[in-house]
Design goal:
Keywords: Glutamine amidotransferase. InterPro entries: ChyE-like, Class_I_gatase-like, GATASE. This is Glutamine amidotransferase. Residues 40-200 form the Glutamine amidotransferase domain. One of its GO terms (cellular component) is cytosol. The protein is built from seven helices and eleven strands. It is an alpha/beta fold and 242 residues long. It has a nine-stranded mixed β-sheet, with helices on both faces. It has helices at residues 15-30, 74-88, 98-106, 128-132, 193-202, 214-220, 227-241, and strands spanning 4-8, 37-41, 57-60, 93-96, 111-112, 117-126, 142-149, 152-153, 162-167, 175-178, 182-185. The radius of gyration is 16 Å and the shape is globular. The longest helix has 16 residues, at 15-30. Helix 2 links the parallel strand 3 (57-60) and strand 4 (93-96). It is 32% helix and 22% strand.
């Protein structure tokens, strides 16, 4: 039986393809296989979350929704309900990208568009709290990660229940923790160069990068060492399974 659950929030015509690509990226980043991490694809408003009773932790992938948009569609409301259930389960949870804004909004913070980051590398710096965090022990103070997002938390309105673990010049909030069991990264901790190119191909017209910059971005991706970003997911899985 799988010890961890990967929840993918991908709908629409390409939803299944994106979900499986994302799942494979998580397996590669964590150095685990399908017997250790099970995929739960939330593909539409009727897809149900697998029972969390028997899992040791949950990894939540990205989503093409924007938290700052009005969540009036059945799909958006279902995503809210699924993520609320995940957070309130008490299980260790790791959110990637979309989940950072969702968690901040869920806890009462504001989401803005002041620090979007185009698809590509971003520089991440640990805060003092980050240097003490259980997932980040032995990490360098600065490392590179891959990212791409159009909205971000407003750092001036972060709820007091959140701890900032990592910051960046291009986006002030890069990693946060809620309580002692929920983490979220603005960057994609599961991605390497190949994964980012695949995701760019899926979302070429979603505003994450200018199409004319595609070749330049893809050519530069392998030049960046993102192993420390990937290692955060490894640390999370080890924290969950002991």
């Amino acid at each position: 039986m799988s010890k961890l659950l990967m929840v993918s929030l991908r709908n629409g015509e390409i939803g299944a393809d994106v979900a499986h690509a994302e799942y494979n990226d998580v397996l590669k980043a964590t150095k685990m296989d399908q017997t250790a991490i099970e995929l739960c694809h939330i593909s539409d408003e009727h897809a149900q979350l697998k029972s969390l009773d028997s899992v040791e932790g949950v990894i939540v992938g990205g989503c093409s929704l924007n938290v700052s948009d009005a969540h009036t569609s059945a799909w958006a409301q279902h995503v809210d309900a699924v993520l609320t259930e995940v957070v309130e389960s008490g299980k260790p949870v790791f959110f990637v990208c979309f989940g950072t804004s969702w968690l901040v909004h869920y806890l009462g913070g504001n989401i803005v568009h002041t620090h979007p980051e185009d698809s590509g590398p971003t520089q991440v710096s640990l805060s003092d709290a980050g240097k003490r965090d259980v997932l980040l022990q032995g990490f360098p103070g600065n490392f590179t990660a891959l990212t791409g997002h159009t909205e971000n938390p407003d750092e001036s309105t972060l709820p007091p229940s959140l701890e900032i673990l990592a910051v960046g010049n291009s986006c002030p909030v890069q990693m946060i923790r809620y309580g002692d069991h929920v983490w979220a990264t603005q960057f994609h901790a599961e991605m390497d160069a190949k994964a980012m190119q695949t995701r760019m191909d899926f979302f070429a017209n979603y505003g994450y990068f200018s199409p004319e910059d595609y070749d330049k971005i893809v050519k530069g991706l392998p030049l960046h060492d993102v192993s420390w970003a990937n290692r955060i997911l490894q640390s999370f899985t080890q924290y969950c399974v002991g």
